[in-house]
Amino acid sequence: MALSLHNINKSFGNKKVLQNISLQIEKGEFVSLLGPSGSGKSTLFNIIGGLFSPDEGDVFLEERKITNRSGHISYMPQQPSLFPWRTVLENALLGQELAKKTDAEYAKKLLTKAGLGDMLDAYPHQLSGGMKQRVAFIRALLSPQEIMCLDEPFSALDAFTRLDMQKWLLETWEEVEQSIFFITHDIEEALFLSDKIVILSSNPAEIKEIIHVPFERPRKEELLLSYSFLDWKREVTEKMEMGNNELKK
Ligand code: ADP
Ligand code: MG
Fold this sequence. Notes:
Elements lengths: L2 E10 L2 E11 L4 E5 L6 H8 L7 E6 L2 E2 L8 E3 L11 H5 L1 H5 L5 H10 L15 H14 L4 E5 L7 H16 L4 E6 L2 H7 L2 E5 L6 E6 L14 H22 L1
Parallel strand pairs: 3-8, 3-9, 6-7, 7-8
Antiparallel strand pairs: 1-2, 1-4, 4-5, 9-10
Helix pairs in contact: 5-6, 7-8
Bound molecules: adenosine-5'-diphosphate (ADP) and magnesium ion (MG).
């Protein structure tokens, strides 16, 4: 397995945010973390990325313990965070530069495939929101780490751009061997993209359920309108609500 979390617990002051989180992400797997806003998803990502320290528990990459250590995971935050003084190509190559191994030709190929072939020398302020997301994603993809964590990367986009980005993400990811751990609060997005969905409750966040998504790949847009997709959407919605009702007791 690529990444595993063992019994992660985290509080901020008196507030318990994460409770006994254990899960595994296999090599090449696409796993979504689905939970309401404020449930602790970004906190968990920051723990995986080594930016926050868990109160209890550990993070492993294969057999290596990486708790409290950054640089082992490639991480794409909610805001694309491109460097304004770097061109599109220079931004995309950043993760590789840190690893001292750059392949500009491959970067250009991926950027061109992402519709950014004419923008290689442009600066971030010249790009649309969707273009910035693509550059940030390609930067994460080109980084040498085997696991990519994406924190609600498409939440700021309008519905059409978002669907385009989801399709593009799947096409690009299907060519590589990286695992993706993807944060979202959107049930459809999680179902459309993932192999596995981890449902979090909130206050404190515990794993409610892990769902194995049965749809074959490559996934097509038509899937979104199929009866079986709608059935699954209903089922996941009910499971999420079940979590919330228990909280009200
Ligand atoms: P999500 O990403 O699921 O929306 P977060 O992980 O950002 O949720 O936040 C979960 C909870 O932890 C929230 O109540 C938030 O206010 C709190 N929190 C997050 N980061 C910090 C921090 N650095 N200090 C104190 N509280 C925090
Ligand atoms: Mg968040």
